[in-house]
Design goal:
The chain has 173 residues and is an all-alpha fold. It is 53% helix and 0% strand. The protein has helices at residues 2-21, 28-41, 54-57, 59-62, 73-86, 99-102, 118-131, 144-147, 156-168. The longest helix is centred in the N-terminal third of the chain and has 20 residues, at 2-21.
């Protein structure tokens, strides 16, 4: 009986107290526009029990947009046509994939420009092999000149071995 009285009193306070908190000076359209603005800015609570706003959960979605350079209508149209030709337009559906990602066989492969010539790469590889600056087998993550400094003439590890040998007078193998 006592519980029912307390519950009834809280219900009565809730009903009578609600109009006191309502703001009568705002119209329905003003409240609706404020809600739309809060949704755009991410200032509404996210679903779940976190108590965080959408902006706090996903700040990358609500960061201020960078200022875009002014482009002409023709430039934008040309960019759109190029994106459609290469498949860089987001495909319809909920996947968020581009058309190229969904159907790669329909679009040309992106052109990648080599920064070095084949001869330059081969010369770098030959130098790395000569100095032992290539990865050794195993999981240690060492290069050959670190693993076997005695085999490579220009190895910093060899210099350490030579200094230790000259200090002690014995060879390290």
């Amino acid at each position: 009986m006592k519980f029912n009285c307390i519950a009834g009193a809280f219900a009565l306070l809730a009903v009578l107290g609600a109009p006191a908190h309502a703001q009568a000076d705002k119209t329905h359209d003003q409240v609706r526009s404020e809600l739309d603005e809060a949704i755009r800015n991410g200032d509404v609570l996210a679903t779940g029990d976190s108590g965080l706003t959408l902006r706090q959960l996903h700040p990358e979605r609500y960061a201020p947009a960078p200022a875009l350079a002014e482009r002409t209508r023709v430039q934008v149209t040309n960019e759109l046509k190029e994106a459609q030709r290469t498949g860089d337009v987001v495909a319809s559906g909920e996947g968020g994939l581009t058309q190229r990602e969904q159907n790669p066989q329909r679009y040309p492969a992106p052109v990648q420009v080599a920064e070095k010539t084949r001869a330059q790469v081969r010369a770098e590889l030959a130098e790395a092999i000569r100095t032992g600056d290539v990865a050794a087998n195993g999981e240690a993550g060492l290069s050959l000149n670190q693993l076997h400094p005695q085999w490579y003439a220009k190895s910093p590890a060899r210099d350490v071995v030579q200094q230790a040998t000259s200090a002690t007078g014995t060879a390290i193998h």
